[in-house]
Amino acid sequence: MASSRITLFVGYFAALVFPFVMWGALILIARLWNLSLRPTLPWLKALEWITWLVGAPLLALWISDSYSRSPLPLFGGALALVSAGFGLLERWVEKRYFPESL
C-alpha cells in the first residue's frame, strides 16, 4: 500500500515538473543553438488544450465523488496543473518570439 502511494506521488510530481523541465530545455536550445522557438508555439497550444480537456473531466469526477477511492481524479488535477504549466510556457514563447501578437 505504501509503495503504491509513493509511486503515485512520484508520478504526480513528475507530471507537475514536466512543463518546467521542458521550459528549461527550450531555453537551452534557444540559447545554445540560437534557434527561434516560433515553430513550437502551435505544439505548446495543443499540449495545453489536450491536457486541460483530459484533466478537467477527470477532476470533475472527484468533485462529483463518483470515484473517491480511485487515483484517477487526482491524475486529472495533476493534468489540469500541467496545463497551467504549458500555458506559462506558451505565454513566454509568445512574449519572446511573437511580441506583435500581444
Plain-language structure description:
The chain is an all-alpha fold and 102 residues long. It has one domain. Helix content is 80%, strand content 0%. The chain has helices spanning 2-32, 40-64, 72-97. The chain is elongated. The N and C termini lie far apart (49 Å). The model has no long low-confidence stretch (mean pLDDT 83).
- Which spans have pLDDT < 50 for at least 5 consecutive residues? none
Q: Kindly state the percentage of residues in helix.
A: over 70%
- What is the domain total for the residues? 1
Q: How does the overall form come out from the CA principal axes?
A: elongated
Number of helical elements: 3
What is the CA-CA span between the terminal residues? 49 Å
What is the rounded Rg?
A: 16 Å
Give short descriptive properties of this protein:
102 residues; 3 helices; single chain; mainly alpha
Describe the protein's topology.
Elements: H1 2-32, H2 40-64, H3 72-97
In brief:
The protein has 102 residues and is mainly alpha-helical. Helices cover 80% and strands 0% of the residues. The radius of gyration is 16 Å and the shape is elongated.
